[in-house]
Amino acid sequence: MEELLEQWSPNQLSPNGTFSYRVNLINVMKFLYFMSFKEVKMSDNYEFPYAPDNWEMDKAKQVAADEDLELTDDHWEVIQGIQEYFDKTEFFKPRQLLDALDERFHSKGGLKYLYTLLPKGPVAQGCRISGMEPPAGTIDDSFGSVQ
């Protein structure tokens, strides 16, 4: 969507001192088509606006406790990041999510730090706690998941 809006750039200053915009009709149609399928969702939880409808913090705490984790502020930040990623992307790409989390926690050590937070894998374990379905490649023990 942002790419479509970026193409609406000021063309030139008009004689009356305002900008005129060059609008590409195809881009307008793409934008309207995209928006017609985009579901606008507001969560009741202001701290987790991108959370799935059936997700609650108590459920996340229970899942974490079942996996021998005590959730800290950084865990909650990972959960927010995963939920936002799922909400804003059309097709889930585990590598893209992992790179985004690595960048977000780069100042604390990146992936090494994420694996200390979520020892069973930032994507797989993070998705479970976030209320998202972990991708198959991240939970298969023979596929390189952390044990």
Describe the structure.
The protein is mainly α and 147 residues long. It contains 8 helices and 2 strands, in the order αββααααααα. The chain has helices at residues 2-6, 25-37, 57-66, 73-88, 94-104, 111-117, 124-130, 136-139; strands at residues 10-13, 19-21. It has a two-stranded antiparallel ribbon with strand order 1-2. Helix 4 packs across helix 7 (124-130). The longest helix has 16 residues, at 73-88. 18% of the residues are buried.
Biggest pleated-sheet summary? 2 strands, antiparallel
Q: How many individual β-strands?
A: 2
Report helical residue fraction.
40-55%
Number of helices: 8
Kindly name the structural category.
mainly alpha
Beta-strand content bin:
under 5%
Instruction: Using the alpha-carbon principal axes, give the shape.
Output: globular
Query: In order across it, which strands form the biggest sheet?
Result: 1-2
Distance between the termini: 39 Å
Radius of gyration: 20 Å
Please write the string of helix (H) and strand (E) elements: HEEHHHHHHH
| Uncertain spans | 4-13, 35-43
- In round numbers, the mean pLDDT is 76
Attribute tags:
two-stranded antiparallel ribbon, 147 residues, mainly alpha, globular
